[in-house]
Amino acid sequence: MTVGRAALSNLIGGIGYFYGQSRIAVPSNLRVDISEQYWLYWSSALYTAVPCRSKFSWGFLWDEGFHQLIIRRWDKKMSMEIIGHWLDLMNIDGWIPREQLLGEEARNKVPQEFVLQHTNNANPPTLFLPIQDYLSTFSGDAVSNFKSEDRAFLEASFPRLQAWYNWFNSTQVGKLPGSYFWHGRDANTDRELNPMTLSSGLDDYPRASHPSNDERHLDLRCWIALASKSMAVISALLGKDTSKYDSMVKELTDVDLLNKLHYDAGSGRYYDFGNHTEKVKLAWRVWQDPMSGHIRRELVRSVDGRPRPRLVPHFGYISLFPLIMKIIPANSTVLRKHLDMIADEKLLWTGYGLRSLAMTSSMYMKYNKEHDAPYWRGSVWININYLVLAALHHYSQEPGPYQNVALQIYQQLREGLIRNMVESYYDSGYLWEQYDNAANGRGKGAHPFTGWSSLILLAMAEAY
């Protein structure tokens, strides 16, 4: 109760009103002058929660969807207003800047390379999480709960949600039908062990070693499946044609197509696909500074093997997205394999929650650059653990041969996650950005992190 109150009150206390202009990177093909690095977005107002008032005290698009899962249950109208503010930041193409650095105060806290927002780069459409949660209150016999204020909110939101959805399906699609990939990875870097995928929200989670347009990113495909389901329900509630969204739901939940694009039958795991080699490392390069004559050294990326098109063999949070989005059928042996892998201590299981990357991965707890500590390469993150809990809870209630297994794993995961966060709170006084997957589950990173780490409250309440 004490930790739950702290989680909720600090999340609510972090809601703020911001005003200013984002800086948008000028596309190289539209740059008139080499010195013209950015354009100013229009002056925008944003009413939003923030992840961490002491370190990340501005709006983050993918974080906000998780925040609203909680705020929606506390004050539905406030949540509607916040979601509306985010949708109003959309440009004519349907793109929303992923970080809202509205003013000098916010920009001064951010390294320069992260200030400019790129109009080709996406961010997970997590606002569909609270929207889906909200829509579930009108399902089946509960359709009578659909009031005039709900209709007004959906009528106002629908054109923007439709534009956002269409933007994803015109700019982020892959070469094969039903495939998608995150843009913005640096194919020319010689400093990063694995080029970052900041647009995915999972930053340094390992993807294909050599970025290309041939990549297929599993998590993005699953996010679009979620968005398609939500758009179909909204269309039906508003009396609009649902055929387009119904067709997309059918395609993106087609397990045979999913398996063709992302499934490794040998291991029973889902993976990304791309141009990849495991023979990549960081190595010291020694050189002489021509200006000073001093000998210097730096860590650079060394590739010792030829990359080839293949599934990318890093098992972790990404691999769980078909389960998270409940795409795997309840009677499928693939589900049983995933339940077994979730509970395997050599892979993702810890007494403190699921680690982000399996201990068997070649990238487990590896630095991405000399001074870039591992981020999504092993630590326990609460937002993804909450989504996994929601999926396990679903499968524990869905008729099928693995109900009891799903229930047992659900109960153990929930208990360990809550116990560790409560104990850590009493030891340190904080909720943390992430939790160590080995050293007694201690809190790490930014604190007090009462953004998505506050989802522990919903886990306590078993509200999914």
Structure in words:
- Helix content is 38%, strand content 12%.
- The protein is α+β, with helices and mostly antiparallel strands.
- The strands form seven sheets. It has a two-stranded antiparallel ribbon with strand order 1-4. The chain has a two-stranded antiparallel sheet with strand order 2-3.
- A hairpin with a 7-residue loop joins strand 13 (434-435) and strand 14.
- It is globular, with a radius of gyration of 22 Å.
Q: Between the first and last Cα atoms, what is the distance in angstroms?
A: 18 Å
- Structural category is alpha+beta
Q: Widest sheet: strand order?
A: 1-4
Radius of gyration: 22 Å
Write down the overall geometry: globular
The count of DSSP E runs of length 2 or more, i.e. the number of strands, is 14
Mean pLDDT across the residues is 96
Question: What is the strand content?
Answer: 5-15%
Helices and strands, in N-to-C order?
HEEEEEHHEHHHHHHEEEEEEHHHHEEH
Unreliable sequence segments: none
Largest sheet: 2 strands, antiparallel
Share of helix, binned: 25-40%
Blueprint (SSEs and pairs):
Blueprint: H1 2-13, E1 16-20, E2 23-25, E3 38-40, E4 44-48, E5 59-60, H2 61-74, H3 76-87, E6 99-100, H4 104-107, H5 128-135, H6 148-171, H7 218-237, H8 243-252, H9 255-262, E7 263-264, E8 269-270, E9 273-276, E10 280-288, E11 295-303, E12 308-311, H10 321-324, H11 333-342, H12 382-397, H13 403-428, E13 434-435, E14 443-444, H14 456-461
Antiparallel strand pairs: 1-4, 2-3, 5-6, 7-8, 9-12, 10-11, 13-14
